[in-house]
Amino acid sequence: MATTTRQKAGWGAANAVTFVVIAIPLLWIASLSFKTPAAITDPSFWPAQWTWGNYSGILTNSTFVRPLLNSIGIGLIATFIAVVFASMAAYAVARLAMPGKRLIVAGALLISIFPQISLVTPLYNIERSLSLFNTWPGLIIPYIAFGLPMAVYILAAFFQQIPWQLEKAAKVDGATPWQAFTKVIAPLAAPGMVTSAILVFMFCWNEFLFAISLTSTTSARTAPAALAFFSGGSQFTTPTGPIAAAAVVITIPIIIFVSVFQRRIVSGLTSGAVKG
Amino acid sequence: MSTSTQTVAVAAPTEAPARHWHRKKKPPLSEGARAERKLGLLLCAPAVIVMIGVAAYPICYAVYLSLQRYNLAFPNAVKFVGLSNYGAVLSSPYWWQALKVTVIITIFSVLFELVLGMALAQVMFRTIFGRGFMRTVALIPYGIVTVAAAYGWLYAWTPNEGYLSALFSNSAPLTSTVPSLAIIILAEVWKTTPFMALLLLSGLAQVPGDLEKAARVDGATVWQRFTRITLPLMKPAILVALLFRGADAFRIFDNIYVLTGGGHNTYSVSILGYDNLFSALNLGIGSAISILIFICVAIMAAVFIWGFGVKAPGADLAK
What we know:
Number of helices of chain B: 14
CATH architecture of chain A: Orthogonal Bundle
Shape of chain A: globular
Structural class of chain A: mainly alpha
Distance between the termini of chain B: 14 Å
Oligomer: heterodimer
Largest sheet of chain A: none
Structural class of chain B: mainly alpha
Strand content of chain A: under 5%
Shape of chain B: globular
CATH superfamily of chain A: MetI-like
Largest interface: A-B, 110 and 108 residues
Radius of gyration of chain A: 23 Å
Strand content of chain B: under 5%
Distance between the termini of chain A: 30 Å
CATH superfamily of the largest domain in chain B: MetI-like
């Protein structure tokens, strides 16, 4: 179709508006994080006095550093386990003849729309009796469960597009189904696994409700939960600057992720959901 | 597998009515098919165990807890009380206020997201210049930690500190109900419109370009082409997006927790459940609220799947 200059300008303007609407709240938090406590009361985007103090404050303080490490550790472990379990299940759902496939897909769908608050009360009680409360596994296990559905969908859709003749060829050559899975299919499936890993990690990184409900100290509390428990450097300073700095710190990995993996994230988000 | 189905197909015509009898007589699976079945079940086992352990079992346990009088402050006074916790919740004005707030937030935020998401999807679909860049930009709100973004909104609306408050003559909108709800919805819409747009975008990409061209030749206006061709063809994608976003908006927690803490009558059902557990320490009432929220979401999903005929996503995966 012939695009006129006017149309081009129109879409360009629409792009510009989108960009500004998305960027302003981000710039605002960034600007807050560089303001000195005195400059916080100035609503301008350009700090009257610049400081790195908010960053050095939170990064030398265990009330943020420890949760940040928890976030990374819990996120990585939960993501790894969820993707391994999901790959196995997705392979079975996409490829193997067996009963109960529909149940698995339905169960995954159910969990993906499940209200987490419904689980907080029982999990709180269960975890206290199993001594999982306020520990890494206490968060990792629910994160695996809520990361699984997404990963199963993405991987099952991905596995269906793999050229399976290769698997047959391997079997003809004498490979067992397990060997065909690990030696032939798994390497081909790696891109799908990366996509689901990114999305599951982003979910864990973002999660807040379990993080504040199933922890009580910084020994397992993750970064988003720590933000909500921030108090200023002393009783008399407002925590606005430190909270803004911490918000920026936990946003940076996300910006890197979406910049590097934009294509994968888009395909992952839309693969299971819409093609049906 | 193919051998066993063939046997069934051959045997079926005469024996079709007596199905269970027939099933018993089904020849044993070949060794290969049995091995495949076993492998399949083994591969699914870890995922299924985790999903049952973290979701199915706790929800059953929550049903059990909801039938008890169980306050953590009085751990020795646990007693079976039947449905009286449900009675207490359903006759409490707090529950109905929370439900009202949740429904309002869900309807308005999903509605705005649908309209804005459709516009954004069009922009991302048509734009020729900087496509990848625009998609990356649009993914940032989706990826950003909700709590981090929520603090940005909170400080933006703080009088004498925030740029948005300054724009509205230093008002303090987070101190009364309606403006607070508007800001909560704004924060939700900002964060999730890009996600909605991406879901709609992949629906948009499936609308055949020829149809639009044909309509254009026949003299249909832009609006006619959108409402008569694009929208009907995108209906399945739209319904799936509405189901997912609707269920997600209904469990809203993070934004309210940060923006108002549930004050000024802005608490959602999730906030109410949380407060009953951690402020009132009432496991019985908290569990009853949990179950009621679960029922609400289940009804919503059922309406979408059976009422509107949403094809459950992934149904084709299990073929």
